[in-house]
User: Which sequence fits this backbone?
């Protein structure tokens, strides 16, 4: 154990070197250590590496930026508190994400978005990260950009999902244009994994009063109806997410949403019934609640789950 502490202190000291080669070599070693040895992650954090790593996210060297972002991601898996207590870390991550289309390395963008998702596993950090509108805006811009790498899109979606898990963040995401970006992604990207992750975020942001108007502008209920229709061949996870989104809309929206839901075509209703019969336990309960609304047998407050 003492050897690991000495190694960590030595490498962190090298991060402050005036030699770019020395710093680069130390970054590469730290990345490998945190990847291969979970025990070393906290040791490296306690040795003072995080401020240096955060500063390196501003580097014009893609190799250095990549190694710093990957090391932060690895540390976040085991030790979230040291990252969140480091002043300027979220600003550094925001910098990488903001420049996703220009100066930032694609790998650093992916690692930075994944780091956010890792941090957002802790619900106490969701309000803090969600309050950083520049981060949310950049994540939305990543999924909007036509030539964003698939991995960047998936990591951005996961980070947005983590932000949306905190109810008070949802209106902010709507205000930043998340609904339009998400539904556009569903319509333009046929890859199953992307559609599943996108609809998971849609289901979360549907859970606020502001969602009704935003979904209305992009024909959101119709898109969700199409995903549920048994003829479209959507995956079970996508259909469960669509059910969850519609249920949240009905719970948070007004009479317009209720009318749209009640007027869904038979194929979509069959999709809800399929989730009721074959979905996960959560999916089944949501489908049962949504069917009450579709069939008109319940008041708005009867189907909270």
Assistant:
């Amino acid at each position: 154990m003492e050897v690991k502490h000495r190694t960590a202190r030595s490498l962190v000291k090298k991060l402050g070197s005036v030699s770019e080669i020395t710093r680069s070599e130390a970054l590469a070693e730290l990345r490998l250590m945190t990847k291969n040895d979970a025990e070393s992650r906290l040791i490296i954090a306690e040795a003072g590496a995080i401020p240096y790593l955060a500063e390196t996210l501003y580097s014009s060297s893609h190799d250095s930026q990549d190694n710093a972002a990957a090391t932060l991601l690895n540390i976040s898996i085991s030790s979230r508190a040291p990252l969140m207590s480091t002043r300027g870390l979220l600003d550094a991550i925001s910098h990488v994400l903001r420049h996703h289309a220009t100066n930032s390395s694609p790998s650093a963008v992916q690692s930075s978005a994944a780091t956010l998702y890792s941090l957002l596993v802790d619900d106490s950090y969701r309000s803090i990260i969600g309050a950083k509108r520049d981060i949310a805006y950049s994540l939305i811009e990543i999924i909007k950009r036509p030539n964003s790498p698939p991995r960047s899109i998936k990591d951005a979606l996961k980070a947005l999902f983590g932000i949306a898990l905190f109810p008070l963040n949802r209106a902010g995401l709507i205000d930043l244009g998340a609904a339009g970006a998400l539904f556009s992604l569903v319509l333009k990207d046929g890859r199953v994994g992307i559609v599943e992750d996108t609809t998971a975020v849609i289901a979360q942001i549907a859970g606020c009063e502001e969602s009704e108007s935003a979904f209305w502008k992009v024909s959101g209920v119709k898109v969700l109806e199409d995903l549920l229709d048994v003829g479209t061949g959507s995956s079970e996870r996508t259909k469960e997410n669509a059910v969850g989104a519609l249920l949240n809309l009905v719970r948070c929206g007004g009479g317009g949403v209720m009318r749209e839901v009640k007027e869904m075509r038979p194929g979509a209703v069959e999709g809800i019934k399929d989730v009721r019969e074959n979905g996960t336990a959560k999916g089944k309960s949501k489908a049962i609640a949504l069917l009450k609304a579709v069939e008109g047998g319940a008041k708005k407050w009867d189907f909270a789950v």
